[in-house]
Amino acid sequence: MNRLSVKVVIFGLGVMTYIPKVDATIALSPKQLFATPLQAEILSLLTEVDSGISAIATSGWKKFYSNEGNFSIFVPDTSVTNLNSQSEEYSISIYYADTKKSSYIVGYVDYKIDLNKLPLSEVYDNFLKEFLGNEVKLLKQQNIQLGQYSGIEAEYRNENQDIIANIRLFLVGKRLYVLDVSNSKSGDATQFFNSFKLENKIKDNPTKIAIKMFL
Fold it and tell me: Per its UniProt entry, which superkingdom is the organism in (predicted)?
């Protein structure tokens, strides 16, 4: 029986920038699918990222490619940090950009368990339920499409702050894509979300704008 527990700092990097005490756990408990906690070192790593490694914002946007993730997306014209973690049950890769006004993440989790055996609504609903935790309020949620893939978009806010964040989830095979924008009212969540595209094969030499960090 496999069960994966991933702390909110992985999928809520944008919110983490403004709400450092959030410590919810992501879990799909109905089927007891997941069970490996993420290494605690990621918290200190994210603190370093937020303190300036990836945050010299300039105007404009640029197209970012991930051959490993099979996607492309437009991100603010600032440096992008890549965080990676692996276990026997899953591997995680996240790209993080901070403009000081808003934080943007795009990432994915590759599971060795086929999540398609569960109803899709159950996968997303339980993910969001644990992701939001007790201190974060879900404001609204809607179904969306990415080509042939059904996903969801949700808007949420910490009860003690006015920061609004948006998240999108797409399950593609055994891979769960996660896009998140904090302080989305100040940032451009629509441009970020709508520029996300799945790619079969991108470039032999994709744009290298990510600072890689491995856990």
Answer: Bacteria
Tokens of 54: 């990836």
* Interatomic CA distance for residues 93 and 152, integer angstroms: 20
Q: Assess contact for 190 and 104: CB atoms under 8 A.
A: no
pLDDT, tens digit, for every residue of 116-130?
Answer: 888 999 888 877 876
Q: Print burial letters for 95-133: b (CB count within 10 Å at least 16), e (below 16).
A: bbbbbeebbbbbbbbbbebebeebebeebbebbbebbbb
Encoding tokens for residue 181? 């924008």
- Average pLDDT over the chain, rounded to an integer: 71
Q: Any bridge partners for residue 113, and if so which?
A: none
pTM of the entire structure?
0.71
